[in-house]
Each structure stands twice: as structure tokens, then as C-alpha cells.
Amino acid sequence: MTDGSLKLENTLAKILAKNIKTLIVTIARMIGSIPLITASAAISEPPVHVGLLRRVSSHRYFRLGDLLGIKLFQYPNLCKTELGIKAIIFDIDGTLYYSSSYLRHLTRAVIEALAELMEVNLREAEIKFRSVKNRVKTISMGLKLLGIDRHRFYEVIVEKVEPCKYIKPRPELKRLLANLKANKIKVGCHTNSSRKLAEKVLRCLGLSLKDFDLMITCDDVEPKPSEEGYLAAMKTLGLKPDEILYVGDRWEVEVEPAKRLGMKTALVSPKLRGDPDMHLKDVMELLDKLDELDC
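The structure corresponding to this sequence follows.
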């Protein structure tokens, strides 16, 4: 392709993009159905090449904005008006990401920590770990059965694990949280980990505490499936249970307790388990799936 042809192609692409953007903004203002989030003006003229117009983001709520070179949030109806959803609370591990290699690394660290704190060998610590986890489903709850101080346990774990070796950044999560906040939906996280370990994992994902309006850890409350953390979230946010959507990856341990309290629920799992209001294979499907709720 000659320089002249390329220049003409780019010029035509810019004109096309500008005209499409003008049309969409005009329609949005007429029907009031498409909220726009812009850094400056909705109709700007960033460099646009025909190749950009052919590319499509992997998630529908970014596709149109990516296509047009504007920050367009494509979900006018997050069911928040009809359902009254005012906050979404996310579990962290297994929900915001999944890493089998980190899970193996973490399990090894847990067994080593148990051996150290109980003064037993690794084999005996592993047997106790498996036994307790089978009984109560979560090691955070099992620590009480083993007579181990939870706070001391997580102090040891934080020093042993290196999550960033296994967990990669997910910049799309930051955009997801920002888009929810832009729609006046508060976002929180609720984890059975300690605050230090949770912060360590969030950093690996490219997130920080500033991305959330609320954070509840086992430093603050009894671990899931105890209702204490859910009740603390409602109290802190000043919301009723049916105004909150809870997103987690384990039905019995975290999603079912939320549903029993009256929260809307979403299960992030390859297979459907239990009776959540929404089933996601990846948390990034959340906005696509919100319209499945009974609006």
C-alpha cells in the first residue's frame, strides 16, 4: 500500500468513526438510554486506523467503545433501578482469578505453616489439613478445630507465599470495577484471607484497596460460611440484603450463606452448583449476565 493510499484510508476511517460517534451520542441524548463516560468530550478525534475498526474486544461492554475510540459504557440497565442493587461484593480467590498453580503453591505453604505452628512433621500436618478441610470445607474455619490462632497462622502464610509468580495482572478487572462505580454501584470484597494476604494477591491482579469501597477479611470477622462478614458488609454499607449482589466461587461456603440472608447471588464456576441467581464461568461475564436477574 502506498503512503498516499494509507493516508486516504486513515482519513476515511477518522471521518467514519466521527460520524458514527456523533450518531450514537445524538441517539443516546434523545432516548436517554446509553450513559457515556468520557475523559474529556464524547466526540474527540483520537488517531483511528481502519484496523482498529476491525478489532473487537473480548467482552461486549467494551466492544463499542473500543471500536469508536471512546469510553462508552454499554449497559444502561444494570437492573439496579428495578432490583435496587446498590452494591456488589466479590470474593477474591477463585472469583477474581483462578490459578491452579497458585492453589498448589498456597496449599504447600499452608501445610508448612501448620507443621511449624503445631510442631509436627509435614506428613502429619498434611493429614490434619485434609481431615479438617473435609469437615468444615475451609482451612480458615478449621484452624479453630486445630487450636491454632488464625492471625498468627496468616502472619506465617504471608511470609511464605509468592502469589505474583502464579497470578497475572487482569487490567480488565480494574475497568469492570470502575464501570460499576461510574453507575453508582458500590464495590466491595469479602475474603477468608487476612488483609495482608488479600492485598498481596490484589497487587498481582493490578488492583489495590482503592479500587474497592469496602474490604472485609478474617482479620475483621469470623471466616465464611459464618454470616458475620455478610452482616458487617450490610452494616458498613448501610444497605438491605436485597440491595447487594454477592459474587463468589463456592456455593456452600460463601454464595449460599449470602442467598439465605436475602442477597442476590452469582456463582463463578465452570459448572453450576446450588441455586444462585446467576452463573458465571468467569467474573468478567458479570455485566453480560446481569440482565438474567429478574428485572
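The two ends are 51 Å apart (CA to CA).
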